[in-house]
Amino acid sequence: MALTLNLQKSTTSLTLSLQKVGIHKMPVLDMGVVLDVSGSFSDEHADGTTTDLLTRLAPWGLSFDPDKKIDVFTFSNGAASAHMVGSLTESNYQGYVRNNIIEKVPGWCGATDYSYVLELALKEFGWVDGAAKKAGMFGRMFGKKDEPAKQKKRSLIIFITDGDNNDKDRTRKILRESEARKDEVYFLFLGVANGGGAFHFLDAIGDEFGNTGYRNIANMRKFVRMSDEEINAYLLDDELVGWLKG
């Protein structure tokens, strides 16, 4: 049964949770969620559990993002699978995965690489290749217009995966370069261990990079039924709180 949420009550709860950790002015930042669509995660997509997780994250987008939305990305393996799905909003969050993702996105039920979608998210939020692009003479002849430079946006990106990746070196390279540029981006990795697996790589990069955190979700079906206060307290660890205060 699909989870229903009083979004107004949940956004108020987030405000109170932030106040408890010393954040009295709501941070303004763009919200992104990156969702694994590899084959091992298909059951959770099909039974609506990942939509329930997005539902529980919706108040974060409504609170932090000036446009009251979450930009949703999906990935499996390879550059071609890294995809921006669109925005999750107050009007479309119900059934979001079924309506927009299942068997509709590139790389559906593939393997697992993290780096390409990390790169795509950094581009979308203006931190990589954000320069203006000229259409060129022939492009203009056919009505193509210049692309304006992407504005750099302070962003919180929540990265949801249930599996280990095959591109550890490239993932470290992307994160190392982001940290060296001092991108105003924080990556919060959620390792969904429904099968009891460990996420040694996520644990390692959470310690290795200052703008990267990791939280383990041992049972996602149980997690999405927790109270707002419990979810906020679990995700708002000391490092993320420190970044939000910065």
Automatic annotation (TrEMBL):
CDD domains named among the record's database cross-references: vWFA
Q: Which Gene3D superfamilies match?
A: von Willebrand factor, type A domain (3.40.50.410)
Ranges where the VWFA domain occurs: 30-244
| SUPFAM superfamilies found in the cross-reference section | vWA-like
In which domain of life is the source organism classified? Bacteria
Which Pfam families does the record match to this protein? vWA-TerF-like
Name by which UniProt lists this protein: VWA domain-containing protein
- Name its species: Variovorax rhizosphaerae
